[in-house]
Amino acid sequence: MDFFEQAYHGRPPWDIGRPQQEIVRIEESGQITGDVLDAGCGTGENALFLASRSHHVIGVDSVEKAIVTARKKAAERGLAVTFIVGDTLHLSEIGRTFDTVIDSGLFHTLSDPERVVFVRNLHDVLVPGGSYFMLAFSDLEPGGYGPRRITKQEVHDAFSVGWRINDIQAAVFESHTRKEGSRAWLSSITRL
């Protein structure tokens, strides 16, 4: 059993029972447009929030237990979100494109070789001019727990060809285990 499957046998730190405030903020500012893919959606709080704001949303996660929970929440809330058990390294297998892709805590879990595959698949599923928003642990967050930290340079390196980085700003990645959250980067990136 991998780490993420094991995490969902309890309550993972990132499963806060509501959308990340950074996702709420960028949606309320009008930056999230059109059809949305939530890559690594977990139990679906970000996807469900976006659906409640009239976006057509598909969420994908590799952990079946998380997807079952997300589908149950969607049914309970009367929201039409499609949740798919799938590998986020094979997003192109969804067979369609999106105007926006959100990533709340996925990219920072990927190895260097996986990042290359992910970015290629991301390019395939985003329309030209589409937006990718990535919330990932920052290298400014002290180590000792949690996922690998991301530097601004790593974001620039991963998205150097076929992309335009609009902004990388300091943000907070919320969790139920750390009241203050963790220091993160929120990157806004456009597919060329």
Question: Could you please describe the fold and organization of this structure?
Answer:
- This protein is of the alpha/beta class and 192 residues long.
- It has a single domain, classed as Vaccinia Virus protein VP39 (Rossmann fold, 3-Layer(aba) Sandwich).
- Strands 3-2-1-4-5-7-6 form a seven-stranded mixed β-sheet, sandwiched between helices.
- α3 links the parallel β1 and β2.
- The longest helix has 14 residues.
- The mean pLDDT is 95.
CATH class: Alpha Beta
Task: Summarize the biggest pleated sheet.
Answer: 7 strands, mixed
- What is the H/E order? HHEHEHEEHEHEE
- Number of contiguous helices: 6
Question: Segments where pLDDT lies below 50 for 5+ residues?
Answer: none
Level-2 CATH architecture: 3-Layer(aba) Sandwich
Give the CATH H-level superfamily: Vaccinia Virus protein VP39
**Shape descriptor:** globular
What does the radius of gyration come to? 15 Å
Structural domain tally: 1
Strand order of the largest sheet: 3-2-1-4-5-7-6
Structural class: alpha/beta
Fraction in helix: 25-40%
State the end-to-end distance: 38 Å
